[in-house]
Specification:
This protein is an alpha/beta fold. The chain is about 35% helix and about 25% strand. The protein has nine helices and ten strands. α5 packs parallel to α9. It is elongated.
């Protein structure tokens, strides 16, 4: 059983919680039995780490398995409580990309928001997310908030310039979420390829993306409410604009 924070494996687990090491090795640290089991079934788990009482859940899988103390589990976890189950998971680049329903996230900085948006995207058939200057998608909080669906979405970190090239190359019509746009209730455009632009929590959609937009659409609101959480807005748009 591993009981020391200075253990080589524990140091590595802490290292891949940082986006620099995670990107370098194309792996991330995942937590909770549900998400770990899901990724085992998807063939992405390369190493399992768990507390003693959970060890029997992972016997005879042919995957390296190490046992840690409860103290080490709490040290590794970013959650207030942990079930003591962790794993190293491969981050894979998709072979094909579906452009029919996309999201464009513009400077999104809240990992919980991003995770929630991923869950909604999975639910409403938006299979591709372009993220510009946004929070690292394979952080603990993003993965947990997405309930593991982050691994089922084509999430592509991209620049404004490359996004503009992709828009014209794939003929994607961009819909900008903005309070001054046409009501989503009246918007009836259904192009073959569509991308919904969601702005940052504090500043909204950048002028660069506003200039790229083919349509500007708003969510009608009552009682002097002026704005919604980014994940709530994204969910409303995706539900209304799904095929």
């Amino acid at each position: 059983m591993i009981t020391s924070k200075d253990n080589k494996l524990i140091k590595y687990l802490i290292a891949i919680k940082d986006k620099k090491q995670s990107r370098l090795d194309s792996v991330c640290l995942i937590e909770t039995y549900k998400i770990v089991r899901q990724m085992i079934d998807n063939g992405r788990v390369t190493h399992i780490i768990c507390v003693e009482e959970k060890r029997d859940l992972f016997q005879n899988l042919g995957i390296p398995l190490d046992t840690i103390s409860g103290g080490i589990a709490n040290f590794i976890s970013d959650a207030s409580t942990t079930d003591g189950v962790f794993a190293i998971c491969r981050i894979e680049t998709p072979d094909t990309i579906n452009y029919s329903r996309c999201l464009i996230l513009d400077n999104l900085q809240d990992p919980s928001n991003l995770g929630s948006i991923v869950r909604s995207a999975r639910a409403f058939g938006f299979d591709t997310i372009f993220a510009i200057n946004s929070v690292y998608p394979f952080s603990f909080k993003c993965i947990r908030s997405s309930m593991g669906y982050i691994f089922d979405i084509n999430l592509i970190e991209i620049t404004y310039e490359k996004l503009k090239e992709t828009k014209f190359e794939k003929d994607i019509k961009f819909v900008c979420a903005d309070m001054f746009g046409e009501s989503i209730e009246k918007f009836d455009k259904r192009p073959q390829n569509l991308g919904v632009i969601i702005g940052s929590e504090g500043k909204g959609v950048s002028d660069i993306l506003k200039d790229m937009a083919d349509y500007t659409v708003s969510i009608p609101m009552q009682n002097q409410v002026e704005s919604l959480n980014a994940s709530v807005s994204a969910s409303i748009f995706m539900f209304n604009l799904k095929k």
